[in-house]
Amino acid sequence: SMSTSDEIASSMGNMNHLEENLPTFSLAEVREHSDPSDAWIVLYDRVYDVTTFLHEHPGGDYILHDVLGFDATTAFRSTGHSTDAFSMLETYLIGILPKNERMWNNRLIW
User: Fold this and answer.
1) Residues 34, 71: contact at Cβ < 8 Å?
2) pTM, to two decimals
3) How would you write the pLDDT of the chain (110 residues) with one tens digit per residue?
4) CA–CA distance, 74 with 78 (Å, rounded to integer)
């Protein structure tokens, strides 16, 4: 069976066709949404509006407060989230970083 990282890599691959249609937001723009009432995060170069997700986060909303407005990829990975956790976020996907700010594009390092 596939490892979690393989599964996430494959679900990210499935999302790649969407990227052309996604609006781009810079890290500076994401940074302006660092309040629980207006909360964006970056995960694997994709931008998510998690404002309405905060209270649904199984690990509690407060634990996300430190990463609001930032790239949360390292925190997400180090917590050992499941593939389900990653796919839960698809609903909240609003954009992608501009190409020059992407770290994970075509370089899935797990």
Assistant:
1) no
2) 0.80
3) 556 666 666 666 555 555 668 999 999 999 999 999 999 999 999 999 999 999 999 888 888 999 999 999 999 989 888 888 888 899 999 999 999 999 886 555 54
4) 6
